[in-house]
Design goal:
The chain has about 90 residues and is mostly helical. The protein has a domain at about 40-90. It is built from 3 helices and no strands.
Amino acid sequence: MQPHDKYAFSNTEPVSRGQRCPFFKQKIESMLIIDVKSGENIDRALKRYKRKHRKVGVLQEIRKRKHFTKPSVERRKEVLKAAYILKKQEDEN
């Protein structure tokens, strides 16, 4: 291995979409594909794209990875959220 080939690995296979990359701990995501049917309004196709984008959670994942939060802080947030939801449910009954 040459010095400039810092990330060259000899026994690696190409990674297809949706698989985990062996060198990084994140999943390789495939791009969103929307098939526009013949005669379909472009606004309708754009609406389907936006709905799919929201459902996949791309924007939430980007915001989440923007800053590192300690696991203890994440657990604390989950506990507080669960307590809040439980309190709201008790108030309704």
